[in-house]
Write a structure and sequence with these properties.
The chain contains nine helices and no strands. It is mainly alpha-helical. Helix 2 packs antiparallel against helix 3 and helix 2 packs across helix 9. The longest helix has 32 residues. The radius of gyration is 22 Å and the shape is flat.
């Protein structure tokens, strides 16, 4: 069977593929946001002085990173109903992918925060910054510069990982592609269409990531309007 350029171009611009690509991107963003929230909590637990919280973080990361995300999704969608818990494909997908991303984001956030010397916090507090201001304007800008590159890689991976949702019948890009193949038997053309969409999303994210990293290097965080202008106590 020859490669048909007409079929390739036809499906490349079909609304169902454009819509599926949008759904894929939206799910990736939503799952990554869940992963950031989970990762932040785990990172704080992991840096806690209370041992049970640190053990919980280590156990979570060990469990999630040690098992394939496909197995986790299958357990959520096909396994939980045996326990009387039924999730929709979207709920199972977001929980599964968000929990998976959280294990990786925990390490990224922990590494970023640990890279900032404690002296930075002490110096900010000595200048009159509150603890929240010290974190917002001193610690986080420095930590973000460390976190952004691995975070960018993690999100790029997430866009590809969403293809696993096709096994639980969620209609993202790969699922729509497989349904089209079942109707036409044009494998190479349609998988090529899917590859183009994944590459387009990945390339778009590279531009966004480059902008964010450049902005972080410039130190886009503005000085707080309420920040003290003199060292506390200096008269």
């Amino acid at each position: 069977m020859d490669f048909s350029t007409d079929i390739f171009l036809d499906y490349l611009t079909r609304p169902e593929f454009l819509s599926a690509a949008g759904v894929t991107l939206a799910v990736a963003v939503a799952a990554q946001l869940i992963g950031i929230a989970v990762g932040l909590v785990l990172a704080l637990f992991g840096m806690s002085r209370y041992a049970p919280l640190r053990w919980f973080t280590h156990g979570y990361i060990w469990l999630i990173r040690g098992t394939p995300p496909l197995v986790q999704l299958m357990l959520l969608y096909f396994g939980l109903p045996q326990l009387g818990i039924r999730l929709t494909v979207l709920q199972a997908g977001l929980i599964g992918l968000g929990a998976y991303a959280g294990a990786f984001m925990a390490e990224i956030i922990r590494s970023g925060l640990a890279s900032v010397s404690s002296d930075q916090m002490q110096a900010a507090r000595s200048m009159g910054f509150s603890r929240l201001q010290s974190i917002r304007y001193v610690v986080m800008p420095q930590a973000l510069r460390v976190m952004l590159p691995p975070f960018g890689n993690e999100f790029a991976s997430m866009m590809r990982t969403t293809s696993l949702l096709s096994v639980i019948s969620f209609e993202e890009l790969l699922r729509v592609t497989r349904m089209a193949i079942n109707e036409t038997y044009r494998v190479i053309e349609l998988y090529s269409v899917a590859a183009v969409y994944y590459l387009a999303m990945y390339s778009l994210w590279l531009f966004v990531q480059a902008y964010l990293e450049k902005a972080a290097r410039r130190g886009v965080t503005a000085r707080p309007a309420t920040a003290p202008t003199e060292i506390k106590g200096a008269q």
